[in-house]
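thread: overnight batch results

M.L. [08:02]
morning all. the overnight job finished for the chain we discussed friday. pasting input first so we're all looking at the same thing
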Amino acid sequence: MNPLRTALFGLIAGACALAASSAGAIAATPAKTVEIKGEIIDTWCYLSGVMGGPEAVVGSAHHTCALWCAAGGIPVGVRAEDGTVYMVLKIKGEDPLAQTDTILEIQSDTIVAKGSHYVRDGINYLVVAQVVANEGITNKNHEDFGVVPGFAFPEAE
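M.L. [08:03]
and the structure it wrote out:
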């Protein structure tokens, strides 16, 4: 084998080994039992901004789109009162989440969830054991933002 090629291969292999050993994923924290109050959100639209700013893609303005996303398998989250977003992995033991009616029944609602909280690589995860309270849709922002996206409801003929 060519000595230059051997040296290059060794350099690349060494760099990969070093990167793998020093930049590995941070292990998940042990589960903490928590009770969190917040709104069930559509994580894709909320985090990507594809349908508008963070205040437009929550509440009643974004409810129809959030239902579509949840039904299509986009993970839901809980946006706590302090603004922290928790990615919901399971709710009430149902699996897979996207194939259940539970999430569609509470999408955009403000709930109190009791469950297990994990953190890995700076991301908050929540396994909801119980929905302790459900206040319904309390963020009535459709008057401020209209329906997001605008094509969520067909125009009257």
